[in-house]
Amino acid sequence: MDDQNLKDQQREAADNKMIEDAFNEVLKIYLASRHRRKVDIINKAFNFARQAHKGVRRLSGEPYIMHPIAVARIAVEEMGLGSTSICAALLHDVVEDTDYTVEDISNIFGERIAHIVDGLTKISGGIFGDRASAQAENFKKLLLTMSDDIRVILIKICDRLHNMRTLASQPANKQYKIAGETMYIYAPLANRLGLNKIKTELEDLSFKYEHPDEYNYIKNKLADTQAQRDTLFAKFIGPIREALDRMGIQYELKARVKSPYSIWNKMQNKHVTFEEIYDILAVRIIYTPKVRSEEINECFKIYVAISQIYKSHPDRLRDWVNHPKANGYQALHVTLMSKQGKWIEVQIRSDHMDEVAEQGFAAHWKYKEGEIGDNENVDDDSELNNWLSTIKEILDDPQPDAMDFLDTIKLNLFASEIFVFTPKGEIKTMPAGCTALDFAFQIHTFLGSHCIGAKVNHKLVPLSHHLQSGDQVEILSSKSQHVQPSWINFVSTAKAKQKVMAILRRDNRETQKKGEQILDDWLKKNELEMTTPELNKLCEFHDMQKHEDLFLAIGRRTILLGDKDVEELLEKKKNESTSSWLKKYVPFFGHSEKKDSKKNNFFIVGEGFNKKKPVIINEENISQFIFPACCHAIPGDDILGYIDNKNRIEIHRRDCTVANKLKAAYGKRILDAKWDMHQVMFFDATIEIRGIDRKRMLHDVSEVISDKLDVNIHKMTIESNEGIFDGQIEIRVHDRNEVKTIMGELRKIEDIKEVLQIL
Questions:
Q1: Would you call 97 a catalytic residue per the annotation?
Q2: Bridge pairing between strands 670-675 and 250-257
Q3: Domain coordinates in residue numbering, the chain
Q4: Which residue, 72, 198, 396, 475, shows the most beta carbons closer than 10 Å to its own?
């Protein structure tokens, strides 16, 4: 017993030293900043949080207080935040995990810190009904508080970053949930706030847990090619360094290597191999201007000087200096042809621009006159305030469905912007890919809802016309115009989509009432009542999720009620139950009867189901799972499971767009899933090939697939146009590895230039 007591005392002493050292490091970083010295309240918050979390440990085994300390360190060291944020970071889990309330925090630390802590505290219950998404609800609360105080979301991103750094201790299903939520919500948020370094780390960590094999492959490739990049960098910057020295500029040259996630994402989107990505290396020129007011002029002088050394790519000049991105990012990007025959992007930015690029809006506070007070606000950052006001508008009319709500918010987290001019020459920042209708709603809701078209550069265009940077746009409207359902298909900004959906919902409510009245009248006419069981049967038959959907369809006349023959038949069958006549006289409802004699025997998740254990899919049980068409998962794909509303399990690829939304909205329903297949069953896969047409091309392709690899070609279509061919090959394979092998062999065929995998 004495030995055990001694061990406990030693462990407690080691824990206390670790905690004290970690907190003192936070204080040291804070005191080295330009913030006002408010050490007393930080000490007070630390001691309060330490006592509140006493005796609690994380899954990793370390004392829980180490997490709030780590979050506070990220806030001060990587975001440059001050005492209020540090205190809120230290206290952010107290209300959620202990008996202390927001009122307690307010009484001890003041309203401002309490307000931030409240915004960071998870909540139960919500606006989404019985099938609520707690994640979407928590995110909504976070945004509501954030629109009053931006520090709420900044600290939440710090919290998420530390959770991602320590994700290894979590079970696989939690890893997919947290990584998916991070990729879908928090990485775009970090990007929108200009936190480039944190955004990149969040993406890489999410990628590492969702696709470990691909992550390790790219990390190893980067390590193997490091020496080549170092040589290329050294040869490329030599002449640049000489030119900058002659100009007397104070500068720093850095090599920027593309992150593993960015490389993988480009490989997927462009259907290229690692070796085919040309912009893995970029060069960063960070200069300190001699005179701060001449900062922009100096940037362009450097551009002119390096353009005289290397030829620049005419379509790859990006001027983010005169037109900063909405997240505050400023730099001049130019792509130059090196003497080794490789395009290399050069990013020119001042020391100030570089800090803003890495730390986002938080860096602005460092450049205010004098010491930074406790008012870490962004009053002078109009772009951010515009963004926050848009979020407020969305929250004023939230989507009733969790997935729609998250989608609407995500639409506003655009990564790239264009610059559009009004007829009077006023510049407006818009997301890339926006339409004339988006622009109309951006100016005013009334203008958007009555828009009939636009003049872009004095030419008449439709509402769906996509705007380009530099366009001058005049919106044309008419009072007789009304919002159309088709508009939702081409608006791309959150504001426009939210307004269109709000107006359509209002119109739908009127149509629903009309449909409900039509159905009620018809049922009464046929001596039937509108009861819940009968409505449920009608909804089930018509594949409608809700009664409101049925009313809407009837109101829109997409479901037609009544014809004389059916009424006559009903007269003879009045004594039959509703369900029997429904099945017998299906034509009455405008649909043909569904003949589905084969009933699926899906696995149903019961109460005792262990969500922490992976679902194993093999030849015997594969038919018990649902494989949605959204991502066409086959053996060899990284997969996960999702428990649907009927407690069945859907299997998705981990990078599926639908799965990404599910992870972000319904994380508690996510399961780990693994394959245990033995190359017995066959699955469909499609490969696309492009290249230069020639004789025997078809023969060479079929010979590689059928003869050399012994794979069954299910279907092949090839089209040739002016010497270039485009083809699709549908094959039957055992797993994804076979697809990769086939693609590798096809790439070896002469004159085949592209081999793409269609998912």
A1: yes
A2: unpaired
A3: 10-217, 218-366, 503-589, 615-675, 683-758
A4: 72
Long-range contacts of 588-597 (CB under 8 A, 24+ apart): 588/561, 588/562, 588/563, 589/538, 589/541, 589/542, 589/559, 589/561, 590/558, 590/559, 590/560, 591/541, 591/542
595 CB-near residues (< 8 Å, 6+ apart) = none
pLDDT tens digits, one per residue of 725-736: 999 999 999 999
DSSP code at position 202: H
The CATH superfamily assigned to 10-217 is Hypothetical protein af1432 (1.10.3210.10)
Which sign, positive or negative, has the C-alpha torsion 372, 375, 376, 379?
negative
> Annotated catalytic, 548?
no
H-helix segments, 493-649: 494-525, 532-541, 547-555, 564-572, 578-584
Q: Tell me which of 8, 12, 20, 96 is the catalytic residue.
A: 96
The answer, yes or no, to whether residue 617 has pLDDT greater than 80, is yes
CATH of region 218-366, choose from 3.40.50.300, 3.40.50.2000, 3.30.460.10, 3.30.1440.10: 3.30.460.10
**Residue 29 neighbours by CB under 8 Å, 6+ apart:** 73, 76, 77
**Three-state DSSP state, 237:** helix
What's the start-to-end Cα distance of the chain, in Å?
Answer: 62
Q: How confident is the model at residue 278 (pLDDT cuts 50, 70, 90)?
A: confident
pTM of the predicted model as reported, rounded to 2 decimal places: 0.76
For residue range 246-260, what is the model confidence (pLDDT) as tens digits? 999 999 999 999 999
Residue 177 neighbours by CB under 8 Å, 6+ apart: 663, 667, 668, 670
Q: What does the alpha-carbon distance between residue 133 and residue 668 come to, in Å, rounded to a whole number?
A: 9
CA atoms of 454 and 438, how far apart (whole Å): 11
Q: Is 679 left (phi over 0), alpha (psi -120 to 50) or beta?
A: left
Side-chain-facing half-sphere of 654: CA atoms under 13 Å: 29
Give the CB-side neighbour count of residue 717, counting CA atoms within 13 A. 3
User: Quick check: helix, strand or coil at residue 292?
Assistant: helix
Residue 624 DSSP class: G
CA gap 291, 250 in Å, rounded: 12
User: Looking at the domain 683-758, which fold is it?
Assistant: Alpha-Beta Plaits (3.30.70)
- Count of other CB atoms within 10 angstroms of residue 541: 17
Residue 427 CA to residue 639 CA, distance in Å, equals 45
Q: How far apart are CA 262 and CA 269, in angstroms?
A: 10
User: What span, in angstroms and rounded, lies between the C-alpha atoms of 46 and 32?
Assistant: 19
Q: Which of 15, 62, 97, 730 is labelled catalytic?
A: 97
How far apart CA 20 and CA 18 sit, in angstroms, is: 6
**DSSP SS3 for 4:** helix
User: One fold for both 10-217 and 683-758?
Assistant: no
